[in-house]
């Protein structure tokens, strides 16, 4: 795998840090305190210090040494087969988590924004499509968002590798939504199943689907220099590591508490770090992030396309991994990045709901004027009035997450009322808007 990103400078070693701290006194700490507060409140990596603190360039190593000392006192350790992951619950992270919980607890009123089951389904299907498209584009899918959405809505067979990736992602998200149970345990079989679904017909060898890698050929290279950026753990340790990942997901640490959102982000990081599969690790990691939070009853996450926010900052996403890996597996950098992008995704969803508010108002007004119409039928009329193209039973079925028979009944009902004109194309019906009836 090749990525384009500048390699971060590796921090000073623990030996160098301990030596510097031992050679300096309290006075030096006081002189650097204003800078120290910034480094730890923003949780900066060593690589970020030279540009931010040019005025104390000669003292950067000492500043870093004090910052690491403070972090060490607050570190939570997660152990995987001898590997230690470090996490520091900073005030900013705690504030972000509180904000997310407040959003779930009532800041965003779902009931007033989604007064009908069909409207909820419409928003949900749209979000799942956005997530499937963005997660696949992060891994190299080149199909445009418009074409991809049309394919999913029409339930059309994928025409190329990129469309197959997106279709797989979407089917996997639907599977997670419909099959995951509250507090369901994570197992090796479930991880393999999700990988198999998400990589179907997209790998160079079909035998790799849902199967852990059996060699150490998987590496991440810099596109610019060809240098190895990351080399995953030995394939012989994968089973043991993944078993411990499942243990982490299924139990609570005795010595400290991890917020469910943080735990889901750590799970995301662990899959990326172990890289258990030959390909598709990123898509699997993000799908498991959703799976875990939905299993913990964070159902609102179904409406939020986190991968869209990550796709808009791909270099920062990779750098968050690299910052964590180069700083003794301090996953705080990765947690910080994901929380920020999750907040961006929530804001985007709120803006989308606000943007469609007037359109939804038109739908309910249309229903009031004609009691023979349901929400879906009114929505179809308004949607087709904006773009002159036909619709099908399959597209109706996918758009609202309803059965084929319900979608067929809706469209035939609109045709009977005169809003749509029914035609045949091959073996299927297509429906076109009757403009004269709508004007009337």
Automatic annotation (TrEMBL):
Q: Name one Pfam family in it.
A: Fic
User: What InterPro entries does the database record attribute to this sequence?
Assistant: Fido, Fido-like_dom_sf, Fido_containing, WH_DNA-bd_sf
Domain Fido residue range list? 186-340
Q: What is this protein called?
A: Fido domain-containing protein
Q: Which organism is it from?
A: Candidatus Ethanoperedens thermophilum
What lineage is on file? Archaea, Methanobacteriati, Methanobacteriota, Stenosarchaea group, Methanomicrobia
């Amino acid at each position: 795998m090749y990525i384009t990103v500048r390699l971060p400078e590796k921090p000073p070693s623990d030996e160098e840090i301990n030596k510097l701290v031992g050679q300096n006194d309290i006075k030096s700490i006081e002189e650097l305190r204003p800078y120290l507060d910034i480094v730890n409140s923003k949780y900066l990596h060593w690589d970020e210090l030279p540009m931010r603190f040019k005025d104390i360039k000669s003292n950067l190593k000492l500043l870093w040494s004090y910052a690491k000392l403070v972090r060490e006192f607050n570190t939570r350790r997660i152990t995987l087969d001898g590997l230690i992951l470090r996490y520091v619950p900073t005030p900013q992270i705690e504030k972000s988590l509180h904000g997310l919980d407040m959003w779930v607890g009532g800041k965003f009123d779902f009931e007033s924004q989604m007064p009908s089951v069909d409207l909820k389904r419409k928003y949900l299907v749209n979000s799942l499509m956005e997530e499937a498209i963005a997660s696949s584009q992060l891994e190299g899918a080149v199909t445009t968002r418009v074409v991809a959405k049309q394919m999913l809505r029409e339930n059309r067979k994928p025409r190329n590798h990129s469309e197959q990736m997106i279709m797989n992602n979407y089917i996997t998200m639907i599977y997670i939504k419909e099959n995951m149970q509250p507090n369901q345990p994570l197992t090796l079989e479930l991880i393999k199943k999700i990988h198999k679904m998400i990589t179907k017909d997209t790998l160079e060898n079909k035998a790799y689907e849902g199967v852990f890698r059996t060699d150490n050929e998987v590496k991440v290279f810099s596109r610019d220099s060809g240098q190895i950026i990351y080399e995953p753990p030995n394939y012989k340790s994968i089973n043991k590591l993944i078993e411990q990942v499942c243990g982490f997901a299924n139990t609570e640490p005795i010595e400290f508490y991890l917020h469910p959102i943080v735990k889901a982000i750590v799970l995301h990081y662990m899959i990326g770090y172990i890289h258990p599969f030959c390909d598709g690790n990123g898509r699997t990691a993000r799908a498991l992030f959703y799976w875990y939070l939905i299993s913990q009853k964070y159902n609102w996450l179904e409406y939020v396309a986190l991968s869209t926010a990550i796709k808009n900052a791909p270099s920062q996403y990779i750098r968050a991994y690299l910052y964590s890996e180069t700083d003794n597996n301090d996953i705080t950098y990765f947690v910080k990045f994901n929380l920020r992008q999750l907040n961006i995704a929530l804001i985007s969803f709120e803006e989308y709901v606000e943007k469609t508010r007037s359109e939804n108002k038109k739908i309910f007004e249309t229903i009031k004027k004609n009691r023979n119409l349901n929400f879906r039928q009114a929505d179809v009329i308004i949607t087709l009035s904006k773009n002159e193209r036909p619709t099908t039973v399959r597209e109706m079925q996918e758009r609202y997450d309803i059965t084929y028979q319900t979608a067929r009944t809706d469209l035939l009902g609109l045709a009977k009322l005169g809003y749509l004109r029914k035609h045949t194309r091959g073996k299927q019906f297509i429906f076109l808007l009757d403009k004269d009836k709508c004007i009337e």
